[in-house]
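[job 4471] stage=fold_predict status=RUNNING
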Amino acid sequence: MWRQEPRWHRTARQLHGYGRGIRLGTDCRTQWRGVEKVTAETVISFLETLRIPEGPKAGEPLVLAGYQKQFVRGATADGVMIGVLSIGRGNAKTALSAGIGLGSLMGVWDDQPKREIILAARNRDQAKTAFQFVVGFIEGLSEDEQELFIVRRGSKLEVEYSANGGGLVRCIAADGKSILGGAPTLAILDERAAWEREKGDALENAILSGLGKRDGRALIISTSAPDDTNTFSRWMDEPPPGTYVQEHRPPFGLPADDLESLLIANPGSAEGIGASPEWLVAQARRAIARGGSALSSFRNLNRNERVSTEDRSVLVTVDEWLSAEVAPDALPPRDGPCILGVDLGGSRSMSAASFYWPQTGRLEAVGTFPAKPGLADRGAADGVSGRYTEMHERGELIVMGDNTVPPGPWLAELVKRLDGLTPACIVGDRFRHAEFSEAMLAAGLRVPFIWRGFGWKDGSEDIERFRRALFDGCVQVAPSLLLRSAFADAITLIDPAGNHKLAKGRALGRIDAAAATVLAVAEGARRVAAPVRKTRTPVWA
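[job 4471] inference complete, writing structure tokens
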């Protein structure tokens, strides 16, 4: 099965750590106004003086895992103002940031007076989680130290510290209220991916704009956002200068219960933090059995993948698609009529085609990109590294045209791949009617064209016919990186009546080959199911 090298592991060799976005210093030193330069080991040493406030190991000394130490070193490196951490649920990211907040409150590495630490979350209840960790760490200190704190649990959740210049921890909810005028020395933005877009962005901007007043820093932590357009995803994908990014996200398209990739998203599991590997695998298999939103939620929260959990489900699971793959020499022959499914791309997007022989179940697919930009640049922009280049080397992806794929020559090239065979029909999107007509005329094709829509009506029927054919073993294809990638990104949107239509699981996903395959297989299924008309022998009166 195709595997992409994890993003955090690729960049570790470049940045000497798990993160990306800046080049780390060799001694991991940071400069906050009011103190001398201190090493990140000062922060780590303080954290390991604390005691675990809750859970099976409550009361034991806090011992940081390797990935936690790496985040501390990266987030406190020289020149860094914002540290971003994306990791699966239950890996103690909130507890880690709360411990850093407590050290900042106590002035362990920052002795400027009246320090201000902000704990921000989508709502008050979520902010309370980080607040409770701060309070729990305080309760593990000596009685003399505890007397220096004032904890307020009323309408405002606050912790005040009276020694070493004093400080205050405040809980803030992203409810639209302005905090302009604040001057935080440290801000912790918890579960940033779950914040409401407009209110969350407004709060984030207000917090970050105040950091510069006192050389403050921010820690933005969360599980993965559901899509690439989320503000938290943009922090990961397009980190501005002065940002340290540490992301634990496995490759796309792997089974939900794949242990190796589960441990990428949950590095604490191997070090005794959070859920055990056995529990993760068991939960993954339960989610696979339930499917739908249960599987999407598990992938998003526990596997840290960018998968939406609202009104969506995968088109087919990775395991269901892999059941259709056979060795190239075991493919059925090209017998009977051939159905050509076509998804004509836009000005710069991929065009894809699938050839399907319904009598034998044989399926072939090919994708096409224009020459500009190159495949390597496209892969970098789409977040898939060298995947397009690998597809091209395997013969699954071709390049045609300069800035756009010319429809006429492209259709002619597709017909050449049939080695003299003529497709029984071509199936495509009805909204591209004019372009298809011109392309068929330019290619000299005189075959029936069947128009299908990608909305709820035609789309739901085609998806159901495709799934039935796949599950019944009526689709057989050689291992194809193009199709694996497309089906990994393909989801379905569900309306209140239970109808499905095809959609992308992520904004930069390429599902063109999946769309063409659904069209071709669904039309083939209709033809197989159609009753054979019997001709009557003429009778002379």
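[job 4471] summary: The longest helix spans residues 512-529.
[job 4471] exit 0
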